[in-house]
Amino acid sequence: MKKQLLITGGAGFIGSHLVRLMVKKYPGYHITNLDKLTYAGNLENLRDIESEPNYTFVRGDITDTAFIQELFQNNHFDGVIHLAAESHVDRSIASPMEFVLTNVIGTVNLLNAARMAWKDGDLAQKRFYHVSTDEVYGSLTDEGFFTETTSYDPRSPYSASKASSDHFVRAYHHTYGLPVVLSNCSNNYGSHQFPEKLIPLFISNILQSKPLPVYGTGSNVRDWLWVVDHCSAIDVIFHQGKDGETYNIGGKNEWQNIELIKVLCQLMDEKTGQKPGTAARLITYVTDRAGHDFRYAIDASKLERELGWSPSVTFEEGLSKTIDWYLANAEWVSHVRSGEYASYYEKQYGDRLKGN
Ligand code: NAD
Ligand code: TDX
Question: What is the pLDDT along the chain (356 residues), one digit of tens a residue?
């Protein structure tokens, strides 16, 4: 019998890369992708694998308790990899409640459904994996790294909601014995990322000669990991991680925002045949993000040491591949930016969008 795996948020940026990896690498698994298709979810991301026999898409909302319970009753999931979330810090500052609903209530709904579904089974064969972020640890000064034992200190509504969901996942492990594993990853970049996050936003703006809004002085530091490498880490942790454990994921790749932006501008000039310096002239310093965390930096040595994971590309390679993808997929960018893509996909995919 096939192993049944539920991936939530599989139509989003990281989720679509993970669904593709799992569908292709594990033909003996059946992958169900549950996604609400918010502004960030896009079935076009999965067009290449949507007809595979071991893949099913279900449209649904993780905050809908009855729907989630029914989904777990109608399917016998052996594993859940939970990525569905509201994921953009700036949106969380403008509208925190959506983050509480999806990231906290939605996660607890899934935990409850898994607990009920697995209560009489062999728990050794089950696993609930929560995909989380390094932002739960707060903000670093120039020194130090986040480890798995760093105290939680979330400082934005987004990171507070992710911290809360992490706590619920661990609480279900300790209280009810639910088999769980968690990971906290640094900033991802790569293809199919919604152009509201720094790298795809700036690529897209450069292509339209629009200003590049650098928050504050541009001195904040982020630790960047290619999305494909994040997914290879999730694969390893899902299969080999120890029950109840947390693993930090990161690529030892810190960049001050402004330094990264200058490299991006230079690469964009080269790849589009513009005169050197053209893209950089679009750099515009703007009012800082409220509560802007200064620095994130991940110590991923536990994952490397215990599970033998390491990233597959350098930042230069990953960024170059990412830019090439955006240059070749201008149509994707214009769909998701136009705000019309929801109705566009309704037309494209018709009944498949109505859920089951
Ligand atoms: P994303 O915003 O690109 O995708 C989120 C997906 O979740 C979308 O497909 C959306 O439609 C779906 N979704 C949202 N609300 C839903 C709901 N109520 N019910 C069902 N589906 C819903 O996000 P991403 O960047 O791919 O992040 C995925 C996960 O990884 C998130 O949990 C995020 O916190 C975590 N994470 C992201 C990063 C990063 O750099 N992007 C880093 C570390 C961890
Ligand atoms: O227009 C911008 N200008 C700017 O200076 C944007 C969108 C961002 N920034 C800065 C803010 C951050 O210091 O760039 C840095 C990166 O910003 P984002 O791409 O918004 O990412 P961040 O806030 O660091 O959070 C990301 O990494 C951790 C993801 O969005 C989260 O989902 C993930 O958990």
Answer: 689 999 999 999 999 999 999 999 999 999 999 999 999 999 999 999 999 999 999 999 999 999 999 999 999 999 999 999 999 999 999 999 999 999 999 999 999 999 999 998 888 899 999 999 999 999 999 999 999 999 999 999 999 999 999 999 999 999 999 999 999 999 999 999 999 999 999 999 999 999 999 999 999 999 999 999 999 999 999 999 999 999 999 999 999 999 999 999 999 999 999 999 999 999 999 999 999 999 999 999 999 999 999 999 999 999 999 999 999 999 999 888 876 665 555 666 665 554 44
Query: Residue 272 belongs to what domain range?
Result: 198-221+254-294+314-342
User: Is residue 279 in some structural domain?
Assistant: yes
Helical segments of the chain, H only? 13-25, 65-74, 89-94, 96-99, 106-117, 157-176, 198-207, 227-240, 257-272, 301-307, 315-328, 330-338, 341-349
CATH number at 43 reads 3.40.50.720
Q: Calculate how far, in angstroms, residue 202's C-alpha sits from the geometric centre of ligand 1.
A: 20
Same structural domain, 243 and 272 = no
- The tokens describing 121, both together, are 């089974």
Q: Nearest C-alpha to atom 14 of ligand 1 is from which residue?
A: 85
Quote the pTM value. Answer: 0.97
Q: Are 131 and 82 in contact (CB under 8 A)?
A: yes
Q: Is 36 in the pocket of ligand 1 (CB under 6 A)?
A: yes
**For residue 43, which ligand has an atom nearest its CA?**
1
